[in-house]
Amino acid sequence: MDLGRYEEDNRLCVAALLDGASGDIPKAVAALESRLRGGADYGAGALLREVAAAGAGQPDLSLVHARTRAPLLTEIPPAARPVSLVGARLVVHRAPPTSLTRPAAPTVHAVNLGPLVLPFRLHPADSDSLIVTFHAATDRAKIALPRFERLSHFAELGSSLMAFSDPTLDLRPDLALGWYLGSGGLDLTPVLAGLVAQAAAGLGARRVVLFGSSGGGFAALAVGAMLDGPTVIAVNPQTDISKYYPGPSGLARRAVFGDGRPARARLNLVWRYRANAGRPRIRLFVNSGDKHHLARHATPFVEALKRERPDVDVDVTGFDAGPGHHPPPSDDLRAAAVAAAAQAGGAALAR
To answer: pTM higher than 0.85, yes or no?
Structure first.
């Protein structure tokens, strides 16, 4: 795969759509269609849907898989919207914003990153705390993208809420877990950290909680490495993608990096914390019956942090949910979020 060319094609297509450069659209569409006909997606399907929704061309949508995410750069008719886009105003950013202001009501944001479009949803509340969520593996046959996780779950806590959908899943319609890796040339973690810091500042949130389970826990921990002050709640997280089961980890690595060799910090959280000086408070919840995650992810990560980053506060809570990759009861997670949001600490600031 020529990932550099694919990323440039994606960048040119989004730029033409946002600039209203209709003369550039046919060439961009032809490149994306050719890619799909050759068996490579790398975001082409999502962008062809964007072109069709904007009325900017007539792409061959028969090439686009049914599981490809809904358009984000254009308001689409209510009947065509997935539930994740209902009840919120759409805000399109032509480039990563340098600040985020407090909205009056829920908003869905689509951020042009060049190779990918990053969606997140923001729910303001009269609170000085912000809970940020990252989703885990997604059953693409059942859940339409974008996916914003646990908004209703945490709504009763009264905090402002921010939920990121993983744009990595745009790269392949059969990709269920992308760990918020981004693309080959785009490390998504610094972008996510910057947006969290901007949201906290715009909402006046002095306390920030980053929440994720499994692959979402990996993302929450990665973002935490680039911020000062937040509490990270990670439930049964992966901490080294290369040590996860080879099927899903291999699919994601090929989808994102092709045959390339990514920097170690992209895949391994110990290396992420070595490379960044953020100081979050980490609260891990690990099922004692999940032998894989306990032995290959939680234990080596915690031991390495205590040895190499003693300035990072790490606490591990074990629970027994039986054999397998199972979370604790939802009430326990809400209680953990309440406790984390109540902790003293400054607003998250990007490192």
So the answer is: yes
